[in-house]
Amino acid sequence: MIRVLLAEDMHMVRGALIALLNLEPDIEVVAEVSTGDKIVPGARLHKPDVCVIDIDLPILDGLTAAMTIRETMPNVRTLMLTSLGRPGTLRKALAARVDGFLLKDAPPTELADAIRRVAAGERVVDSQLALAAWDRGECPLTDRELEVLRLAADGADPADIATALSLSAGTVRNYLTTIMTKLNGRNKVDAIRIAEEAGWI
């Protein structure tokens, strides 16, 4: 029997996933949590074989929890779920050394199969997402450019960004121009959209 801890903040989704997984003859959901900060304590208490974790969780994000599990409980496998099929998100998950990555809109049979494969020591990645990540390539922006773009995406104007990052407004405008050029964005809004869709910000 494969013991599963399920971390999902949407109650209806969590309930549906538990019901579906408990129909499988070889899978048992032994614990459920709704916030990321409860994943590691739950895993320590219930000793699951696989933690099925939504990436976007309140309090602590799923990837951070998965990394902690990898470091402190290497025998517990992690399978990430996301509703956002962004290549950058997949790359972050792989960098965190999760064992599997699946889109939430995958058929239930795929989830059960992914849990079995991850429990058996395989690495499972949604094939369409893997292709998209391959096609998209690495983020061309520097860490500083990403900082500037994140603040711009939050609605900050160049003066606000300059203050936040201890730069001059002119330097910030230069960064934004460079960012738009690197991302082939028509304007700042388009550059933000491109970066968000790729999962870079």
Q: For the record, what CATH class of the largest domain applies?
A: Alpha Beta
Strand content: 5-15%
In terms of per-residue confidence, which ranges show pLDDT below 50 for 5 or more consecutive residues? none
Instruction: Tell the overall outline.
Output: elongated
Oligomerization state of this entry? single chain
Assigned CATH architecture of the largest domain: 3-Layer(aba) Sandwich
Helix content: 40-55%
* Intertermini distance: 39 Å
Radius of gyration: 19 Å
Average predicted local confidence, pLDDT:
89
CATH topology of the largest domain: Rossmann fold
CATH superfamily of the largest domain: Response regulator
Structural class: alpha/beta
- Most strands sheet: 6 strands, parallel
Kindly give the count of domains: 2
Protein architecture, described:
With 201 residues, the chain is α/β, with parallel strands linked by helices. The protein folds into two domains: 2-134, Rossmann fold (3-Layer(aba) Sandwich), CATH 3.40.50; 143-198, Arc Repressor Mutant, subunit A, CATH 1.10.10.10. The protein has helices at 11-22, 39-46, 62-72, 87-95, 108-119, 127-136, 143-153, 158-165, 169-183, 188-198; strands spanning 2-7, 27-33, 50-54, 77-82, 100-103, 124-125. A six-stranded parallel β-sheet has the order 2-1-3-4-5-6, with helices on both faces. Strand 1, helix 1 and strand 2 (27-33) form a beta-alpha-beta unit. The N and C termini lie far apart (39 Å). The mean pLDDT is 89. Residues 133-199 form the HTH luxR-type domain. One of its GO terms (biological process) is regulation of DNA-templated transcription. The modification 4-aspartylphosphate is found at residue 54.
